[in-house]
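Weekly modeling sync, notes
Attendees: S.R. (lead), two postdocs, one rotation student

Agenda item 3: backlog of single-chain predictions. S.R. asked that every request posted to the team notebook include the full sequence so nobody has to chase files. The rotation student volunteered to paste the first one in as an example of the format we agreed on. Action items at the bottom.

Example entry:
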Amino acid sequence: MTDITEKIATGLEKAFAEHGFAEPSVGDLRDAAGVSMRTLYKYAPSREDMVRAALEHRHRRYLRLVFEDLPSDPSLALPAVIDAIARWMESEAAHGCLFHAAVAAAPRDEKLLQLLKDHKAEVAERTARAAGLTGKETDLTLILEGLTQSWPLYGKAAVRSAKELGRKLATAA
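Predicted structure, as returned to the notebook:
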C-alpha cells in the first residue's frame, strides 16, 4: 500500500467506524481522508470503493492486532486470540463488527458480503491453525463471533464465556 492509499484508507475507516455508512457525506469522507476530492476519487472512484478500502484496511489492522505475537503453544493460542479480540472491541469496535454493519447498510452488495465472508474465514482459519484446532473453524467462528456480537452487551463477561467455550472445544477435540 502506498502512503497516500494508506492515508485515505485510514481516514475512511475512522469516518465509517465513528459515523456509520449512511451519515458521512463524500465531503466528510474527503476531510477524514485528508486529501482533495480529486485525489479521493482517483483512489476510490465511488462510495462503494471507499467502503471497501476502509474495510480492507480494517481487516489488515485486525489481523495484525489479533495474530501478531501469539504464543506458540496451541493451548495458549485461543485464549490469547480471545484476549486480543477483547482489546480490539474495547478500543476499536465498542458497537460491534464494522463488516457486519457495512453489509447491513448495503445488503445487496455482493462484494461487501464477500469481504465479510473472507474476513471471518481468515480469522477462523488462522485461529484454528494457531490453536491446533484445524477442522473446527465453524465452531471457532461461532465462539469469536459470539464474543464480537455480545461485547456491546456483556463486555468482559462475554470474554470469560468465550474462553470457557474455547476450552471446552479444545478439550473435546
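Discussion: group reviewed the output briefly. Residues 3-172 form a domain with the Tetracycline Repressor; domain 2 fold (CATH 1.10.357.10).
Action items: rotation student to repeat for the remaining queue; S.R. to check formatting next week.
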